[in-house]
Request: fold
Amino acid sequence: MEKRKIELSESCRKSIQGIKDTQDLLSGKWKAAIVGALFYNGKFRFMDLSRHVVGVAPKVLSKELKDLEMNHLVKRTVLDTMPITVEYELTSQGKSLHRIIEAMGEWGIKYRKSLLKK
Amino acid sequence: MEKRKIELSESCRKSIQGIKDTQDLLSGKWKAAIVGALFYNGKFRFMDLSRHVVGVAPKVLSKELKDLEMNHLVKRTVLDTMPITVEYELTSQGKSLHRIIEAMGEWGIKYRKSLLKK
DNA sequence: CAGGATCCGGTTAGATACTG
DNA sequence: CAGTATCTAACCGGATCCTG
Reply:
């Protein structure tokens, strides 16, 4: 019983830590949306991405992509074209976020609808 | 075919917007963790909450709770005790975040483990 | 106990312009 | 095309102390 209680709170503590870790990696106004765009479309060039993530400034997009790349969620590939083009895509690690991303998308859509009703 | 394509990109656009909306509501370093703590434990008093969300300063916790309350994700109840105590709990709207919260917790735990292997 | 008051430094993100 | 440079205002979040 006592043991049980400790285990429960221990697993809870771990979950909260996990939530925090995840939130840190997806911090800021744009990262989750960027991952979402890449998730739904596969590969994207910088310009296409900036068109799909509406409103993000190039400087900000560039910085967020670097962060995501550093954390191995996004892979950046420079293509040897003229002029050069760059492709961004999710790594397998990044793709493993799909449950979160899908849930966020669906929840956000429902939330917006529930606001309109009022 | 053309119709199909438009519908696809339309639903994608909506999903990205949903992701953004969700991320806005859970923005900042602590909100998701706070929701997680409330999710795993039900009700919490201010002090208990601050103990479970390790590291958060009272001022910050207070502000985040207000934000969450404003967006109808958290309900605040003042109990008529001496001295007064306050209980926080998720609203049904807040509880509906459970898929996101659970997924974030699980993903974060796995991510942390994958880091330790290296 | 549940916060508010104050102070503060760092980060964030936007606008605009520019480069290889 | 794929970013960088510069500037700036706003905000975030931490520390510390205080109050009903």
Remarks:
- The beta strands of chain A are 44-45, 74-79, 85-90.
- Chain A has a mean pLDDT of 93.
- Chain A touches chain B through 44 residues (CB under 8 Å).
- The helical segments of chain A are 2-25, 31-41, 46-52, 58-70, 92-95, 98-117.
